Amino acid sequence: MKNRTSPARRERPRVLPRLRWSAAAGLAAAAALTAWVGTVRHAALARSAAQPLAGGQKLSPGSILAEGFLVTWAVVTVVVFIAAAVVASRRARRVTRQADGAPAARRGRRATARGW
After folding, report:
1. Does some domain include residue 9?
2. What string of pLDDT tens digits covers the 116 residues of the chain?
3. Which is the most buried residue in 26, 63, 66, 85, by most CB within 10 A?
4. How far is CA 58 from CA 1, 54, 66, in A?
């Protein structure tokens, strides 16, 4: 049984839904980029796959596409997640300021000097 000190409902962290949407955005971006590279840029992909690596091994186009898909998915997911967290933080700060009676936005130094 939980012992709550205040009767107000606590705000749940919105990390998992934000992470799910970020992962979905990363998946969509990675799928689109992989499809584009696999169709439009197929000649360049085949050319780069034909060049041997330093150890004499060759990469298949499928492995290059798979690695590109995973890296794109991870990078886009992280970027979208961070951007969504920053936007949510700013929004929560703005709501808190408005609830406390503070002004929602500060004016610049020039506007204050002019008396606006």
Report:
1. no
2. 556 565 555 566 678 889 999 999 999 999 999 999 888 888 888 888 888 888 878 888 888 899 999 999 999 999 999 999 999 888 888 777 777 665 555 555 665 556 55
3. 26
4. 61, 9, 15
Q: Kindly state whether residue 82 falls inside one of the protein's structural domains.
A: yes
Question: How many domains is the chain partitioned into structurally?
Answer: 1
Q: Which two tokens stand for residue 95?
A: 């709501």
| The pair of three-digit structure tokens given for residue 98, joined into one six-digit string | 């408005």
- 1 within a domain of the structure (yes/no): no
- Single-letter residue type at 51: Q
Spatial neighbors of 85 by CB under 8 A, at least 6 apart, are 18
The answer to whether residue 11 is domain-embedded is no
Interatomic CA distance for residues 75 and 5, integer angstroms: 41
Helices and strands: H and E segment counts in the chain: 4, 0
User: CB atoms < 10 A from the CB of 6, how many?
Assistant: 6
For residue 45, give its domain range.
Answer: 16-51+59-102
Residue type, 32: A
The two structure tokens encoding residue 33: 């980029």
